[in-house]
Every structure is written in structure tokens, then in C-alpha cells.
Amino acid sequence: MADTPTTDDIRGFGMSIARPIDGDLDSICTELGELETLKHQIEARQAALALEVDRMMRERAAAQGIPAERQGKAVAETVARARRISPAHGRTVMSLAKQLRALPRTFARYAAGELSEFQATLVTREASILEGPDAQAFDRRFANTAGLSELGNRKIAHRAQTIALALDEEAVVRRRDKAVEDRHITATPTDRGDGMGWLKALMPIEQLAAVKDTLEASADTALALGVDATRGQVMVDTLIARLTGADSGTPATVALEQPSHPVTINLLMTAEALLDNDHTQPAILASHGPIPTSLAKRLIETAILSLQKVELRRLFTAPHTGELVAMESKARLFPKQLAQFIRLRDQICRTPGCGARIAHIDHVEDWDSGGETTVVNGEGTCRQCNWAKQVIGHQDSEPPPLRTPPEPGVRPRHHLVVAYDSEFTLAA
After folding, report:
1. Which of these, 39, 237, 384, 425, has the minimum number of CB atoms within 10 Å of its CB?
2. Half-sphere exposure of 331 (CA within 13 A, CB side)
3. For residues 127 and 95, what is the distance between their CA atoms, to the nearest angstrom?
4. H-type helices in 20-152, by residue range?
């Protein structure tokens, strides 16, 4: 094509962006955004070029009489060498390019700069378990997602997971069961040369939540008793002592003498899904994202069989928007139940591009400016975004839900929050 940049054009552009930075704050921020879009477009172009490398090398190998099963040999390594990345990463980006070839509409959004390479990888990972018409339907639905460039990594992943679950829940469950078989622990030294290392464990999410909550509770107890250490240090010391039975020699060992803390897992799912009448809407594991309804019910059944206490609480949603029905308060601070309600609704930080966990419940319109303490005017944000909002102003990632009431005569749909713990005491 005439407008396809040449190698010299690309080199020239590299020199142009090395020019001195000039302009006011707004123009600099605009340039930052445009460069981010361009970076994504470049990554998409690299994927298209990788496919062309694959085609050309296969054709060359075929002309040399190399058997078909060996014609793709060294393609990923060639791409990796050209991109100056590791061979393992080369195989990853080559796989991504081939998967995107089967998702042309999603590839087009990628080429438009609305997805990063990592986000495209998250999407194709979910689509890879689907076949035939389901894969095509996935491509159509995901490509029709509005405001794609404003979504962070976690929201992109949740969107793709939700679509895949709606199309073929059994395939998602099979992948999850296969993943459980792959659980393992890795111990890796850091590359900083400081004698430290990483201990990583791949495990089911419900077990991960239990481990994390238990360590955090021990750390909170130790800090409340005056331990001279950070929360993270106490959690590591507690983990080591409980795994090895050895005293770490630090003040944090006081945490080891405290009783275990009840662990709560919150599931949000429709009543229809719980009763086997609706598999189109996945369950939501609070703070982690969508999971198959069959897996959610399996978690509930496990809790019941192990004699853990299980409680159901109804939350209603608007029939057309699917948003949780509003609650309100006259207080400036969000009451505990209202704050929990917003956490269940938002799941992750509402700031555009952010995928961090919710730490603060804040007003969309400031209280001092007349904003009310309601679900409509409340949002979940991470600590960093809440603090930054005071400096650079607020940009909400989505319109606050439920600005208009449900239609008269239409009953709202209700959801069930299923909460259970391991110590027979419920903290819903």
C-alpha cells in the first residue's frame, strides 16, 4: 500500500521523537496519549509482520523440500532476534499473532491502538478455549466493546472471561480443572544480586484468598501489639515460621501465637444461576472477577459439606442495566454496608486504565460540592488513584450506574451474595 511506512520512514520517526520537549502541560499530556496509541499500533504491526515472516519462511522451507511438520521451525526465534527479545518471548508473540489471525475484528481494534500487546494476549488466552462459531461470536462481541482504550488490564481480562463463559462455560471449567492439576511452587532468586529470592505458588483462587487473608490477619494482630516491622515483613516472617516451624528471629514472631482468623469468600451470582436455570451470567468472586457458575456452586457445596456456615443475602439489580440497585445514606462517610455494596458492584478501581484493587470508597461528586452519599455518587478506587484525584481532578471510567430508575411495573432482578468462612463465623 502507498501509505505503508518504509524502514527509512520508521528510522526518521525515531529521530523526530528525540527532539527537545516543548509545549505546555496540556500539549505534553496529549502527546503522551498519542504516543501510547502509536505504541499499541506498532505492536499490532509487529504481529502482522510476524505472520508474514511465518508465511515466507514456510514457503522457503517447502521449496527446499522440508517436510510440512518442520516448515515452521525457527520462525519464533527469527522473530525474537529481529525484535531483540528472548526466544521464549518470541514464541509467545508468535502464538499471539496466530491467535489474532483467527479474531480479525479484535485484531482491527488492536491495530487501531485500542489494545496493548499484553491486553491482546489476555483476550486471546480466553478465546483460545473456544472453537468454530463460538470463537467467531467471541470475536464479534469483544470487538463491539465500547470504550476499549479506557479499560485497564484487569477490566479487559474480565470482559473477555465473561464473554467466554457465556459462550461455553464447560470449556472454561475444563480449563480450570486442568489448571488445578498444574499447581506448583517455584523458588527463584532475584536478579539484583542482593541474596533475596521469590517464592511463588500457583494454586486455586479460593486457596490463595485463604492464605492471603490469614497472613494479613496475623500481620494486623502483630502490628496492633506493637511489633516493630512493616506489614509485609510480618507476613513473610509468619509464612516462613508456619511452613518450617522455625523462629525467624524477628519481633514479628509474636504474630505466630495468635489464633487463626476466619476467612470470608464472597460470591455474587444470580438466583437463577444458583438454581440451575441460567448459565448466561457468570458468578463474580469478589476482588478477583468472573468465574463459572458451576464452579461457584462447587465452592458453596464444598463449604456446606465441610460444615462451614453459609449465608445468602439478596441484592437487587435493574432489569436492563444489570447494575446493583442503589442504597443511600445521609452521612458524609460511606457506612459499612453501603461501602461493601459499592465494592461488590465495582470490583476494581474505577479510574480509566487502572486495574488495582479497591482501597477507598469515595464520592464521584465531592461532598463539599453537594455530592450525596449514595451508590450512584459512590465509586471504588485504589489508594493511588484516590490521592491523585485530589491533584489532577476526577475522570470516571464509566458513567455512574442507575441514573434513571427502572421502568414502572418491571421488577428488578435479584442477586445472591454467598459468603462463607472456615471458622463458622460469618462476616458478610
Report:
1. 425
2. 9
3. 13
4. 25-63, 75-83, 87-101, 104-111, 117-127, 132-143
| Burial of 306 from C-beta contacts in 10 A (0-12 / 13-18 / 19+) | exposed
Buried b (16+ CB within 10 A) or exposed e, 139-158: bebbbebeebbebbbbbbbb
pLDDT in tens, 326-363: 555 556 667 777 888 888 888 888 887 777 778 888 88
Q: 346, 379 in Cβ contact below 8 A?
A: yes
C-alpha cell at 289: 472477577
For CA atoms 93, 95, 98, 102, give the dihedral sign.
negative
pTM of the model: 0.70
Q: Which amino acid is located at 128 in the chain? A: S
Work out the pLDDT band at 47, boundaries 50, 70, 90.
Answer: very high
Question: Which three cell numbers mark 316?
Answer: 437487587
The single-letter DSSP state of residue 185 is E
pLDDT of residue 400: 44
**Cell for 227?**
511489633
**Longest CA pairwise span in the chain (Å):** 79
First to last CA, the chain: 60
Residue carrying C-alpha cell 486504565: 353
> What are 280-339's pLDDT values in tens digits?
777 777 666 777 877 777 777 776 666 566 666 556 566 555 555 555 555 666 777 788
- ∠ Cα 424 200 232 (to 5°): 65
